[in-house]
Specification:
alpha/beta; binds zinc ion; 14 strands; Metallo-beta-lactamase, Chain A
């Protein structure tokens, strides 16, 4: 199938790559740096996605081998899954935040979710938040692509990138803005001169990305980080927002405010439930996201997204937290 490529700004190409899950498309961005080429995010390493990328590059007049640099917004499969394959072919300099490289490594070495469920300390974590882990087979926690070649990330990037870094490639300057939340080392890539912001999953136009607390992120406040990262990007002057899913748009400040409001509303809804009776994250999630039969993976994501909300409310003094029979209960104040 011929790839769809749109020149969204002079020398900046949006390429639509297929995904076998929802959302069904990821947008990656190829930037002409005049004598050099940079790709921000890579798509998955599926034969369909790589073939589509090759076709798109052909339409622009280059080959994968011509890539000079790859920048990953974060380690997730749809964003960084093909980076290993693309670097092998092009020797492009690969850039990723250290926290993301750590996670890419972990995911490759033990298959993330299934690994979580198998470790005794992780089982204790699930149980403490009311999640009935014994009712689910550990394989149910594993997305279908886990452990396959579809996830073939660069696990040792050539350059670690972090907040405020300027990456100079050809005649372009890519500014790194650290936006933790959806993932701890998520970065937004800003082209200051062009007033273009490549936002990864941070500022999607129609949906909000998953933000959750997992066994290896205990003690963290990912939703608080996410909200702060929404406030942070509002300080930049932007005329064109390039998201990883959904259409390009203009007003990033407006969208950041909408996302903040959405989470406030969600939190209020959750705390309301707990005011009558303190509850675990799992119990709250069942009421908010529905308790009908769903794949285990979704039940887990809903529970840990709810937990991120409850923990954020607790840390900000809007909820109390108590331990009862080895269960962690939250109650809105
Ligand atoms: Zn993601």
């Amino acid at each position: 199938m011929p790839a769809k490529v749109v020149e969204v700004h002079k020398g900046v190409y949006e390429i639509f790559l297929p995904l076998p899950m929802r959302p069904t498309i990821i947008n990656v961005y190829l930037v002409d740096c005049h004598g050099a080429w940079t790709l921000v995010d890579t798509g998955m390493n599926s034969p369909e996605s790589v073939a589509t990328l090759e076709d798109a590059f052909g339409q622009v007049g280059i080959k994968v081998e011509d890539l000079t640099a790859i920048i990953g917004t974060h380690h997730h499969i749809d964003h960084f899954g093909a980076s290993g394959e693309l670097r092998r072919r092009s020797h492009a300099t690969t850039h990723l935040h250290a926290l993301e490289a750590e996670r890419a490594n972990r995911m490759v070495s033990f298959g993330s979710m299934a690994g979580h469920a198998d470790r005794p300390e992780s089982r204790a974590f699930f149980t403490s938040h009311g999640f009935p882990i014994d009712q689910f087979a550990p394989t149910g926690m594993r997305p279908a692509w886990m452990g396959t070649s579809m996830y073939s990330p660069v696990t040792t990037p050539d350059r670690f990138i972090g907040d405020g870094d300027q990456i100079r490639i050809g005649d372009r300057e890519f500014e790194v803005i650290w936006t933790p939340g959806h993932s701890p080392g998520h970065n937004v890539i800003y082209l200051r001169r062009e007033k273009v912001m490549i936002v990864g999953d941070h500022l999607l136009p129609k949906i909000t990305p998953h933000v959750g607390i997992y066994p290896d992120s205990t003690g963290m406040n990912p939703l608080g980080d996410f909200i702060n990262s929404q406030l942070k990007v509002q300080k930049y002057d932007v005329e064109l927002v390039l998201p990883a899913h959904g259409g390009t748009y203009q007003d990033h400040r407006h969208r950041a405010n909408q996302i903040i409001e959405h989470h406030k509303y969600r939190e209020e809804e959750m705390l309301d439930l707990t005011r009558k009776k303190p509850q675990t994250a799992f119990e709250v999630a069942q009421q908010i996201f529905g308790s009908e039969e769903r794949p285990m993976f979704h039940v887990m994501a809903a529970t840990f997204e709810t937990l991120a909300h409850l923990e954020y409310a607790y840390l900000e003094g809007r909820a109390r937290k108590m331990d009862r029979d080895h269960r962690v209960l939250y109650q809105g104040l």
